[in-house]
Amino acid sequence: MKVFVSTHPFSFTSPEPMRLLRYNEFDVRLNPFEHKISTEELCKVIGDAEILIAGTEKITEQVFESAPNLKLISRVGIGLDGVDFELCKKYGVKVAYTPDAPTMAVAELCVGLILDLGRQISITNKNIRSGIWKRHMGTLLNGKTVGIFGMGRIGKSLIHLLSNFNVNFLVHDINPDIAYGRLHNVKFGTKIDVLKYSDIISVNIPLKEDTKDFITSKELDLMQTHAILINTARGGIVNEEDLYNCLKENKIAGAAVDVFEQEPYKGNLCELDNCILTCHMGASTVDSRTDMEVQAVEEAIRFKNEKPFKNEAFANV
């Protein structure tokens, strides 16, 4: 069975994903461009692949038209905003993904960004390297209210990690896990409640039609002036231009952004000292990347052996 691996790098953190593919006698081709593949590039090279082990690239109708033998998209990671399920249904393609593997890595990055913003670690490091010795007066995490949009796998893991910091949790979720909330003393509220009453807000929802521009200037204006915003979910959920204007005018204390509408990011948030920027690295740990790739390959193996998927995102029936 022929496999094209579009995600890059692949089998870099461990030889195990490639070993599994070869052991199970797949005919494997790798992304020849050695960078995040574009939709146009994918159309040129996907060819006769029956299985696509995909990254975050957009899989458009042109991709399906260029891959007449495609039967499975096995996504390395958790986000599925690049996959059009209606097109998958139209072309008879199944979709699997690896939602568990990156969860803790993203949650840990959230905690790191919260602590960095609160104590202004990155800007202090930058100042010292520029010859500036200035002690910033930071804020304690202890006793603060952490607002979370989306209490799925990552949101729950973030709550677990922050529980020992003696914080209060205020969560907005369209389908809340009440039992988990009770276990961790979570208070549930509206979107407006989270914006108005949180000291820290973490965005942990998927990018869909109804979450595009979920946070714009309208929502940012509801936040407290000392509050900070963390987005490790997807670019497009927080309007980048509105966030820039909000931070430039010091309407909120700061933000940390790991995901952008266009990546690599070169926008005007780079101008601001009260905004920490990271390069879509939430899942970028050796452990998580290896697990994501192995689990994506394991779904391909299940498909080849006509076994049920562990994490099927879309069943074409």
TrEMBL record:
Domain D-isomer specific 2-hydroxyacid dehydrogenase catalytic: residue ranges: 14-311
Any Gene Ontology biological process: amino acid biosynthetic process
Keyword annotations: Amino-acid biosynthesis, NAD, Oxidoreductase
Residue intervals of the D-isomer specific 2-hydroxyacid dehydrogenase NAD-binding domain: 111-282
Gene3D superfamilies assigned to the protein according to its UniProt record, in alphabetical order: NAD(P)-binding Rossmann-like Domain
Alphabetized SUPFAM superfamilies for the sequence: Formate/glycerate dehydrogenase catalytic domain-like, NAD(P)-binding Rossmann-fold domains
Pfam hit, one: 2-Hacid_dh
Statement: the UniProt record of this protein carries the keyword Transcription: no
InterPro entries for this protein: D-2-hydroxyacid_DH (IPR050857), D-isomer_2_OHA_DH_cat_dom (IPR006139), D-isomer_DH_CS1 (IPR029752), D-isomer_DH_NAD-bd (IPR006140), NAD(P)-bd_dom_sf (IPR036291)
PROSITE patterns: D_2_HYDROXYACID_DH_1
CDD domains, sorted: PGDH_like_2
Molecular-function annotations in GO: NAD binding; oxidoreductase activity, acting on the CH-OH group of donors, NAD or NADP as acceptor
Family: Belongs to the D-isomer specific 2-hydroxyacid dehydrogenase family.
PANTHER family: D-ISOMER SPECIFIC 2-HYDROXYACID DEHYDROGENASE FAMILY PROTEIN (AFU_ORTHOLOGUE AFUA_6G10090)
Name of this protein: 3-phosphoglycerate dehydrogenase
